[in-house]
Amino acid sequence: MRVLAAMSGGVDSAVAAARAVDAGHDVVGVHMALSKSRAEHRTGNRGCCSVEDGHDARRAADKLGIPYYVWDLSDDFEDTVVSDFLSEYSAGRTPNPCVRCNEHVKFAALLERGLAMGFDAVCTGHYADLRTVETDTGARHELHRAANHPKDQSYVLAVMGKQVLGNVLFPLGSVPTKDAVRVEAAARGLGVSLKPDSYDICFIADGDTRGFLRSKLGENPGEIVDESGNIVGSHLGAFAYTVGQRRGLGLGIPADDGQPRFVTKIEIETNRVHVGPVEALDVHRIRGGSTVWLAPDIDPTAPLRAGVQVRAHGREIPATVQVIDDQLVMDLDEPLRGLAAGQSAVVYLGTRVLGQATVEDTE
């Protein structure tokens, strides 16, 4: 196959590309330039998409002996991921930019261009497992958790959609640990073997999400109120808060029982942030929209016992799930706390990813 290997400049994508070469594929490396100010987007191991990352990706491609190109996808990234991030926070929701990036840029934009250029598949260094099941009606592609459970990224990949699964490769899905990847990179002579992982939101390299939102959205002072509607503090912008938040509230009036309070609701219409006791965060039912169902062999409109995960490395909760009136309804066996509209909810059956939806509301 002709394979387009996405090379971020990190160790995972370099080893994934190397494994694609070993498998006999005709591999071309491509580095996606996602930031319009790339030199500013790495501080230690914060952020990504810097000029340094591009150089590291080029050196890895040279070592593997494969062609290498840089594609400027910064407009796609700005128009979809960053703009969505700002609009979602403006609406009082809590988005996951990594989910949107995987949906719109790392697969949609990259795969669309790759297929148009005659490539058969896109290869990335994500930790996830793709399996092919032969059926009477042909091959079925399934997305599963990676063997390396602590690094598993199937949660952020679930939004891809079943139509993409036949055109992607995840060579690291069977690797048991990140250390094993680093050992393999060193054995191959790849200079990124000891490069630290990047973390946090890539376009907020200093990690100050509240500061970034304020710089983009401005200040909009309002009230912080308790469960009885009493004013207990003030804020400079409701968009800077998220459901479940405890720190940084700056409340001037303590709770009657002396217990800490948490953000329980963000009311954009009145520009109010609501706070209450931790018990007020308990969620028993989740309703999700924009549902992506990856399992054509399973009817989502019939009640199904499965697991639900609502954070990238969160715990899976047993639940009964069902698509009702185009909404993915998830009734949890035990309550979750601090779940906000805009987050991604992913449904698992064992290790297999069945579907994904964006949280619209909760009970």
UniProtKB/TrEMBL annotation:
It is an enzyme of class 2 (transferase). ATP binds at A6, M7, S8, G9, G10, V11, D12, S13, M32, G125. The record marks H126, Q343 as: Interaction with tRNA. The active site is at C101 (nucleophile), C202 (cysteine persulfide intermediate). GO terms for molecular function: tRNA-uridine 2-sulfurtransferase activity. Catalyzes the 2-thiolation of uridine at the wobble position (U34) of tRNA, leading to the formation of s(2)U34. This is tRNA-specific 2-thiouridylase MnmA. It comes from Flaviflexus equikiangi. The lineage of its organism: Bacteria, Bacillati, Actinomycetota, Actinomycetes, Actinomycetales. The gene is mnmA.
